[in-house]
Amino acid sequence: MTIHASQTTSTVGADVVASYRENGFVHIPQVLTPEEVERYRDAARHAYETKAAYNGPDDNTFKQILQLWQTDETLRDLTFHAGLANIATQLAGIPLMLWHDQLLIKKPHNGSATEYHQDAPYWPHANARHRLSAWIALVDVPVERGCMTFIPGTHRWTDIRAVDLHDRTDFSDAAPDVTYLPRVTVPLRAGDCTFHNAYLAHTANPNDTDDFRYAFVNIYVDAKLTYDGRPHPCTDGLGLEIGSPLPAEHFPRLPQ
Cα separation of 22 and 9, whole Å? Predict the structure, then answer.
């Protein structure tokens, strides 16, 4: 399901949208120029060295750094990248806002996979018509460096519980019928991107190479969704009431 966008990387054809909606993901090569990749990779490396991990210092699976758009001027440009937001809007077919951005960095020989899961069960959202992530490779990400594998079609399975990303069997325990479904593994070149539906089951291999895996993720969600009251680091402390919309100053509408 590798599909080329237009040369501006801001529009995709009907075949791209159809493939995404059928399978739950699409691979779009070279959404970033080599110059952009270098700039954002340098910023990601600096963030890795200077910013605290949301998931704590002892998690070997990856270092997760949230909300870079609020603290890093360079990576803010990637969060608000108009081409990515335009593609996301076309794939979703509805107005979108930013849920959050994140860096997911696997250190060399980390020895730990990100086990199968869906994204949506972890988020405190209600009445969401569509949610999707843009997973952007800032380095080459072959299989050996921790690329993603998807289970096409599982974006239609919207009743699976949140699972433990560190438990190899928890997702199959929660959804035994996925065990024998086909998988698609998608190695990426630096500057490539995959968009995947928030309900699509996916995993990422360990990084078995001598180099860091730097991936930047923009998460786009229905601009009209509401807050369901569950705790989450992006909404904790905002004083939101159950059923309220997410405030635009914290969750900007995209594209701008």
Answer: 21
Residue type, 226: T
Tokens of 170: 């928890």
Distance of CA 207 to the CA centre of its chain: 18
Q: Could you give the CA distance from residue 132 to residue 192 in angstroms, rounded to a whole number?
A: 16
Paired residues of 186 in beta bridges:
148
pLDDT digits (tens, 9 = 90+) for 41-60: 999 999 999 999 998 888 99
Write out pLDDT tens, residues 194-206.
Answer: 999 999 999 999 9
Place of tokens 């081409």: 83
Of 142, 123, 126, 118, whose CA–CA distance to 196 is shortest?
118
14-254, CATH topology level: Jelly Rolls (2.60.120)
Are the beta carbons of 54 and 68 closer than 8 angstroms?
no
Place of tokens 């949301």: 54
The closest of 108, 126, 97, 121 to 228, measured between CA atoms, is 126
Give the CA radius of gyration of the chain: 17
Q: Give the pair of three-digit tokens for residue 185.
A: 């593994």
9: confidence class by pLDDT, cuts 50, 70, 90: low
Q: Which of 249, 251, 250, 147 is nearest to 202 (CA)?
A: 147
